[in-house]
Amino acid sequence: MNHVNAFLKDSKTRVELVLDQVLPPITHRPTTLHEAMRYSMMAGGKRLRPALCYAAFEDCGGQGDAADWGASALEMVHTFSLIHDDLPCMDDDDFRRGIPTCHKKFGEAMAVLAGDALSILAFQVLARSGNAQAVTILAEALGSDGMLGGQVVDIESEGKPCTLETVDYIHVHKTSALIEASLELGSVLAGANAEQRKLYRDYGRAIGLAFQIVDDILDIESSTEALGKDVGSDIENQKATYPAVVGLEESKKQARILVDRAVEFAGRMGPRSAVLADLARFIVERGN
Amino acid sequence: MNHVNAFLKDSKTRVELVLDQVLPPITHRPTTLHEAMRYSMMAGGKRLRPALCYAAFEDCGGQGDAADWGASALEMVHTFSLIHDDLPCMDDDDFRRGIPTCHKKFGEAMAVLAGDALSILAFQVLARSGNAQAVTILAEALGSDGMLGGQVVDIESEGKPCTLETVDYIHVHKTSALIEASLELGSVLAGANAEQRKLYRDYGRAIGLAFQIVDDILDIESSTEALGKDVGSDIENQKATYPAVVGLEESKKQARILVDRAVEFAGRMGPRSAVLADLARFIVERGN
Predict the structure, then answer these.
(1) What's the pTM value of the predicted model, to 2 decimals?
(2) Regarding the domain delimited by B2-16+46-74+130-285, which CATH topology (the fold level of the hierarchy) does it fall under?
(3) DSSP readout, B125-166?
(4) What is the least distance, in Å, from the CA of B230 to any CA of chain A?
(5) Do B119 and A124 touch (CB under 8 A)?
């Protein structure tokens, strides 16, 4: 797994340099907004979505800086979703990535606006690729039939008995959609055709779902200290999770099956095949 | 002014047909989110930004349906901004366009998400034009150096003594930016060159600023009933407005000067010159 850690580290360094360039400086008016945007963007995180975008881009033989626009846009929309999810009217979380959430630090109004601004900046930066199709992919993954749809069903399912079908809907929309898009964006920005794109999407669907199931498991088995965010909140809020519906052991089994499937998809890929296979394995092993 | 009313009516009919097609049906999951999106989108309004987009598009000799993507995207991002502006952590308004605001009807979480989803759908729809430059124009107008920047400075200026420079910053960013973009989008989607685009931007800047000054004036002189939203809230909230800084009479004079300037710009335009001149005049005369 050493090359996965090296790949994640390199991707993180690369996307953080791009982010530092595309985020407005905190000296630029309105300074509070730009400070809030940078505060949440630069709070760390694995930068998994950018890494997946870079991996798919390289796997498809992409050249130049087009993947930088995709990778930085993905991390901005991911952070936008975290800032809004953490709001008092949503999950009401106080900590994220080990530090106070955006609204705890800057107030609710600024957190709403910082999230909005990051989402919009993502499209602005992605449009630099000159590729309108890339904009379509990101928007579809985020919208009411993607991530936001998953978030709504997640909220509406709280405290109610839940079926596996609903948990799948939530996970596929709230988490997988953006992970699928990370891979598809990387391939599209490298000029991949429709058939190639499908392979990356299939791989993304598998690791995205596995990622969220592992997240559900970590919320039960990990500690606030290790994770840098509140844990145990899923049970407390009666959230729709895999362990709640199928139990802890079956959840672990499903995550392993999904990762095996992803590894199989990765086997059909190009020069980054080995890294993509190990990125899939990394997802179930993190936090353990 | 009869042809302006006819033009506004035709544009409104046209963009509402497009909106009905691009907004997901309320039968589509998650139904509450789609209901909230349609509730705020279909609550009426003058549809001024779509009208400006259509006018510029036609003035530049544009053909086909490209302007429909621009016009519907503009109305969606405008509504997104209203939904978020009305939130309790922002302006905390209960009524908009004569009916309860989105969060009063659907709750805060759903209002945040409906705004997010409309903003994202706008980029999705605009990308159908295949024009990445159009995406850039919309994103720049909305972002932290555009509309959202104006919103932040507006919030931060509440209850404080305010300079004309700051009021200008707020109005140009919070209101003019999107109106300028409406005109520039129309011209770009019609294939206009950089010089033409500048003319529409200049016209848009003038009418955008006039529009917001008139809005400030109406907040003092009109009634809740006539306007369909809370009035008098600017004074109550000690908002940064033109009348607060330069007085009511000087504000009216400035609005007239700006409209005269816009009419002059319109005089240099093409076949829609007369409509664009009258749209500028319409802006100062509405509500009087």
Answers:
(1) 0.95
(2) Farnesyl Diphosphate Synthase (1.10.600)
(3) HHGGGT-HHHHHHHHHHHSTTTHHHHHHHHHHHTTS---HHH
(4) 20
(5) no
